Amino acid sequence: MIEMAKDLVCGMDVDPKTSNYVMEYNGGSYYFCSEKCLNEFRKDPDRYLRGGGDSRGGHRGHGGGCCGMMMGGGWTSYVFLGIILLLLIIRFFW
Q: What is the pTM of this model?
């Protein structure tokens, strides 16, 4: 079984063996799902170590996504998905 670490910023489970985003702080190693989460942690590590991250249980603290297909996050993700949906509608119903 894979031992996962918790991204303290967004709450996502992260595999420490494959994560490219790690920070050593006060003798501990902390793993993150993206550069965005790592940079947030760097701003105020003690806040996140006290539990100041996303309390909703995972990967929702970025306004649309912080890694994977939704790199832009926020409204840009919705525009991208809207364009794909429009192309599919045109392809199958036009």
A: 0.60
